[in-house]
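To: structure subgroup
Subject: Chain for Friday's discussion

All,

I'm putting the inputs and outputs inline so they're searchable in the archive.
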Amino acid sequence: MWLLHVGNLVADEAFFMTGANAVTASNSNPDSSRRTMVMVSALIEHPTEGLVLFETGAGKICPAVWGPQLNDIFAREDYVEDQELDAATSKTGNKIKDIKAVIMQEGWSILWY
């Protein structure tokens, strides 16, 4: 099994931690902390089925597919071509065309071609 680094997103930490960045009576304007999330896919070599990909990541067309509203909430950070699924798969010595099945974790659209 290989873990593939397929991108980074940054968002307000209140999306992940209940009460984060909350307003209180003594602090009506708190600092808004943001968190960077590493997107990871898993490439699994199944003994009978072949290569199985768990999660696809966002891909280079993510900003166009998601649109400005979602990109404003979950912004891509430090994007490089090496995070593309085909490049990340190649680093394992495999080819993207050899993947036999894809398992989607979050129900996201498949955002790579």
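Points worth raising on Friday:
The mean pLDDT is 88.
The chain has one domain: 2-17+30-103.

D.
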